[in-house]
Each structure stands twice: as C-alpha cells, then as structure tokens.
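Researcher: I'd like a structural prediction for the single chain below. Treat it as a standalone chain; there are no partners to consider.
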Amino acid sequence: MTLILGFLGQIYAYAEQPLKLEAKEGFYQFPFFDVQTPVWSYNDQIPGPFIRSKVGTTLVIDFVNGLKEPSSIHWHGLRIENAMDGVPGVTQDPVEPGGNFIYRLKLEDAGTFWYHPHFNSSEQLERGLKGVFIVEEAEKLPWSRELIWLMDDWLLQKDGTIYPQFNTGRDLMHDGRWGNVPTINGKYQPEFLVKPGERIRLRLINGANARIFSPQLEGLSADVIAVDGKPVTQIFPLDRFVLSPGNRVDLDVRLQLK
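Model: Treating it as a single chain, here is the predicted structure.
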C-alpha cells in the first residue's frame, strides 16, 4: 500500500566547489496553458537550484546577474557575515546587469533556509527568483527519507503570462499579492509515493508573497521539530501551525497507516 504525500524537487548537489548561480530571463511550462510562461529564474530552474551542504563548511557562490536590472541574493535565515547578506543599500551594492558578486557563506547553523533577491523583491520573487538552501547536521539522523516543499502561488493571466503590475494599490492596502496558481516546488498538485513504516523529515517553506499556509496531514502522526531553521526546545505534535510568508517548519512524519 502506498500513500500520496507530496513532491520532492531535484537536488542540485553537495557544493564542494564554487557554485555559479545566474539570474536570467527564461520560460516555464505550467499545466494549464499551451504556451510557456516567461519567468525569471536561477540557472534556468523553477525553483532555483536546490543547494545543500553540511554545517561547519564554507560555500563560495558566484552570483551572475543576467537580468536587465540590478539584483542580489539574500540568504533567508542564514546566520552569516553581514557583508554576505545580500541587501542592496544596507550590506552590499546591488549587482548591475552583466556583473557578478562572490558570496562566501560560512554555515554555522544546520536547518531549513531559502534564498531570493532583495532588490525590487516584490517583482523579482514573483517572477520566479527563489530557491531552497538546506544545511545538514553533522550527526546521522533517524529519518529514512526527506521531503522538501517550497510552497508558492503565482498570479497568472488567461494567456499564461505573469500579471505584470506589482505593488498595486490593492496589494498595498491589503496584505500583499495573492496568486491564483498554488505550487509545490514549481509543480501544481504534485505527487510523491511513500510507503507505510517510513519516517520522513518534511521541510516546509512558504515562499509566497502574501498567502498563509496551514499544513494538514490527515491520518498521519507528525511532530514539529524545527521552526524557521531552529530546533524547537520541546518537540510538539502538529495540530494547527500557520506559516506566514518566509516562514519554515520541519516535521517528523511517521507513516503508520491503519
């Protein structure tokens, strides 16, 4: 017997050599349209490359800006040197079109993180620029498998293009930009087969602009083990946990089906 639980995006690699991330324009195929949707992406991937490494290592990432406007990368939740934090006008100058910036990230904390621009972020994120960053613990952990869900929602028009007006009066008066196509790892209603008896670490990341997610795992036993990249002081059962934009939660899911 199998259970439909979710979708695991492709893992990029364990980064042992300098890693290149290039922001550029491209296309992505959503299931509702016969045409491809123009997007902005890292390395032609939606979401961007899945980056993971172990705590205590130092990652060198060469960010190349192939866009027609400045950009940067903010490493959401990582405790790193301020100069590497990727906030133009605060911690670094914006990277101009055709330019690059070398990020050196000393990974001092294990946890679930993600990366995205911090220049014109209300538009650049909503056009597709975001990705997952996992820092693994040094010790061996008990899970038989890991799933990572980067949850998002896209505001698409009838012709398949992204709605081109950002920070509208409605957005500013309410709680931000709400999309009409929810996705997990860039896929609409994806599926992933799991087996009874497995114990899975499920990492959830809310990458949406305004939408709040409240995960429900009916019929499963799940405990919250980390929030926003930090282990909880006391593990507690998942009842009703709300993820606001940017939030992360790690779950210990046990597949004990009756």
